DNA sequence: TAGTGTCCCCTGACCCATGT
DNA sequence: ACATGGGTCAGGGGACACTA
């Protein structure tokens, strides 16, 4: 089929100044719009205020954040913390049509961290129509600017954030149900003493099972092997310590159970995509 | 038949040395 | 602080056996 040369069509575009109404709300919508892109459409920015939530209505596109490139397919939403250097552009073969809003709120940085957006900014939905509906509802309200419409937009932003939290709750906040008594005992011990020297033999002793049974238990409960689970837990504690304290990387690596800071740095980089010091700098920049 | 244990082999994590 | 390469060995998982 012959491909027609297309131009980007801006189907809707709104801009809001911060004023006495908007500062009353939890979420301030700064910009919003609906764009049908051509293949040459490309946005590249160093830093702007707020967070952009881009929903891919049709086609597909890409976003780049912190040197990582993510594909965004039809029915997916990407959360872009636009204070960081970023870019987005459509797939050449099927340029995307997007609905987007740029919102700001002092709460968003924390919500973003809880949702693990820096590592995983793309959201997929079982029911994307629910998200589209929220965008269109916001757009219809953006046409007028009153205290009532602003309050309504605030409610819709909260609903959108709720949808994202709900969407990711299975990955982020759901604790696996631990039915095995020995495994429960082991997990409790690790949470209390995660910096101790743990190995498979000690795991087996706590659980009172053989090695293969231990692996099966971890696979069933956490969908990963015992030491991989331990490593992820230690690195999550390291992230917390890097943000909450000013301890050196070497000291933190020891506190979370690594004998070798180099080994810690390498694992951290693999898991987070940044070195521990870069991660700390970035988190401090966000506050 | 489901649950569990044993054996065995390959992979990759870890440690160390070295360099930037 | 971080990267890289090489040697070592524990982890991981498949195949099969055992047992209640």
Features:
Arc Repressor Mutant, subunit A, DNA-binding, elongated, 4-stranded antiparallel β-sheet, 6-stranded antiparallel β-sheet, disordered N terminus, 45% helix, 287 residues, 10 helices, 21% strand, Jelly Rolls, 2 domains, alpha+beta
Give the overall silhouette.
elongated
- What percentage of amino acids are in beta strands? 15-25%
Structural class: alpha+beta
Bin the helical content: 40-55%
Multimeric status of the protein:
single chain
CATH fold title of the largest domain: Jelly Rolls
The parts where pLDDT drops under 50 for at least 5 residues are 1-5
- β-strand number: 10
What composes the largest sheet?
6 strands, antiparallel
Give the helix tally.
10
Q: Which CATH architecture of the largest domain would you pick?
A: Sandwich
The end-to-end distance, rounded to whole angstroms, is 51 Å
What number of structural domains do the residues give? 2
| Corresponding CATH superfamily of the largest domain | Regulatory protein AraC
What is the succession of H and E elements? Answer: EEEEEEEEEHEHHHHHHHHH
| Global Rg | 22 Å
Given this structure, which CATH class of the largest domain is correct? Answer: Mainly Beta
**Strands of the biggest beta sheet: in what spatial order?**
1-2-9-4-7-10
Written overview of the protein:
Keywords: DNA-binding, Transcription, Transcription regulation. GO terms for molecular function: DNA-binding transcription factor activity; sequence-specific DNA binding. This is AraC family transcriptional regulator. Pfam families: AraC_binding, HTH_18. With 287 residues, this protein is an alpha+beta fold. It is built from 10 helices and 10 strands. The protein folds into 2 domains: 9-172, Sandwich (Jelly Rolls), CATH 2.60.120.280; 181-286, Arc Repressor Mutant, subunit A (Orthogonal Bundle). Helix content is 45%, strand content 21%. The strands form 2 sheets. Strands 1-2-9-4-7-10 form a 6-stranded antiparallel β-sheet, with helices on one face. α8 crosses α9 (261-272). The protein is elongated, with a radius of gyration of 22 Å. The termini are far apart. Mean pLDDT is 79; it is low at 1-5. The chain binds a DNA duplex (20 and 20 nucleotides) through α6 and α9.
């Amino acid at each position: 089929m012959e491909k027609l040369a297309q131009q980007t069509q801006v189907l809707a575009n709104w801009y809001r100044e911060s004023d006495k109404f908007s500062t009353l709300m939890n979420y301030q919508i700064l910009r919003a719009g609906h764009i049908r892109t051509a293949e040459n459409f490309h946005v590249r920015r160093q830093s702007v205020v707020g967070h952009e939530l881009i929903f891919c209505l049709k086609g597909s596109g890409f976003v780049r954040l912190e040197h990582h490139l993510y594909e965004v397919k039809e029915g997916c939403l990407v959360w872009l913390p636009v204070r960081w250097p970023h870019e987005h552009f459509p797939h050449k073969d099927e340029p995307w049509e997007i609905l987007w809003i740029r919102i700001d709120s002092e709460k968003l940085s924390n919500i973003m961290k809880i949702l693990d957006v820096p590592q995983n900014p793309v959201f997929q939905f079982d029911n994307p129509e629910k998200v589209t509906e929220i965008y269109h509802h916001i757009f219809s309200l953006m046409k007028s600017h009153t205290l009532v419409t602003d309050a309504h937009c605030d409610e819709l932003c909260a609903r959108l954030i709720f949808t994202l939290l709900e969407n990711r709750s299975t990955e982020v906040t759901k604790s696996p149900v631990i039915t095995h008594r020995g495994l429960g005992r082991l997990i409790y011990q690790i949470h209390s003493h995660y910096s101790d020297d743990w190995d498979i033999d000690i795991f087996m002793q706590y659980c009172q099972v053989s090695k293969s049974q231990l692996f099966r238990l971890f696979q069933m409960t956490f969908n990963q092997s015992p030491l991989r689970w331990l490593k992820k837990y230690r690195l999550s504690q390291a992230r917390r310590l890097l943000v909450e304290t000013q301890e050196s990387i070497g000291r933190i690596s020891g506190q979370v159970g690594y004998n070798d800071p180099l080994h810690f740095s390498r694992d951290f980089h693999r898991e987070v995509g940044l070195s521990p010091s870069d991660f700390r700098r970035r988190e401090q920049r966000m506050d």
